[in-house]
Amino acid sequence: MEYIFDKIDNYMLVINKQGNLKYCNKPLLLRLGYIDKEIESLNLIEIVHNSQDKIKNILDGTDKKNIDLELYSKNKKIIFVKGEIIFEKWKSEDSIFILLKEISEEYYSPFLGCIKDLENVDKQIFDIWGKSRSSELNELELFLTTAADLIGIVDKQGYYKQVSSTWTTILGWTSEELLSMNFKNIMHPDEVENFINSIKLNLINKNLIRLNNRCLCKNGEYKWLEISIKNAYDKDIYIVTAKDITYEKEIEDEKKKLQEAIHLEGIKNEFFANISHEFKTPLNIILGTMQLLSKNIDRGRIKYSQDINLISYINSIKQNSYRLLRLVNNLIDMTRIDTGYYEIHLGNYNIVNIVEEITMSVTQYVEDKGINILFDTNVEELELACDPDKIERIMLNLLSNAIKYTDEDGAIFVDLKYYDNKVSISVKDNGIGISKDKINKIFERFGQANNSFTRRCEGSGIGLSLVKSLVEMHDGKIHVKSEPSYGSEFIFEIPVRLVDDEKLKTIDINYKQFQIEKCNIEFSDIYSI
Taking the complete model, does pTM exceed 0.90, yes or no? Predict the structure, then answer.
């Protein structure tokens, strides 16, 4: 979901019912000068300038449209924004989506003679238009010059007779240019026919006409105007008033896109969840059948011709089943993360023991490829809050990648360091490395350093994205150092803290009992099992 919001042009902010910031899209983060982690510790009141009442109205739902706010950037610069809110769920929590667009400071300047009511506009103009004294004509000029809305007097053929200066401000055309044009000349070609028909239909009864149309700017762009037309005191003269609603239209379009994106994201996640479970069931049956066949062959209960390499065929089926199972597991987990239903179960564990046990459990796989693996630590015992299953998932994925891209006689180094109240765990290899143009993409979903069909190892590109999410669920972070031909080093850090109200646990998991199948699944893109 964040990926979608980061691509929209406008600013997106998500807060909970207490005003705490839950998410801020990249365009707004850059404008405010914050990073992700800083935003998550802020409340709306800390970034909105002098607007206690507006914040209260947003939180209780009083203000939903046309919200004017002044945001504080990190360097205390004021940013003027306008927008509206949508009440939706964010990662299963009731939240408030605030869709914003930056507007210039001039928007907040007081307007002279701002006219919104057309019923009063036509009377004001024609009280002056029908008079001939020069002082009153000057009054008309002043009126048209100071009005904030676009105001014009048009004859029966649609030609401008008088225009306010705001037409130039909004559309760019000079008064002289407009006075030589027909009103329909600036209408969008797709809307001219409907515009003319609406005028004919409504002016018969001298009704007030209100239309939303795109009008041509001098620079070739189009702006949305809310146009009102009325035949006033002279049957051959019409009053046209309009206001620029381009911003409101853009907000409306963005709102529709957002709602559609939320809807489509829900459909996509539901589809992936359903299809993943549908894949997983037959895969487990296939794997169970293969294991049963293997046991019966080992015990001599199944006779077969030695000319047929049955064991090789069975191993091939198992390996590719594990490969599919790995993909399905990753898809299910990413879907759960996206929808906010993926949970970690924290307990207080000895992280040194966990990482060492996992590293040593893959020794046979590494040695089969002629690679050395070494584990080192600067602390013998360190207890912290973590989910051992998720740490195992992280480590197996990083080790799998290191094995994939390290040649025979290479080496893999697993290093655990404790410093500054955090633990740093690195998996380093001296393999092929990653090029600079790919290194920033490898943590993206489906991002791969080599996405060609001739790459040396298989993979979907989901693994490292999942690893990043699992690390962040531990309030940690991950990064990579790499140089082509010299290898890569993946480093993740998690804070050292303990879970409250939890009996201190020491890791007592028999990894050898459960690790074989997990390794087979995680390393299925490398080995013939």
Answer: no
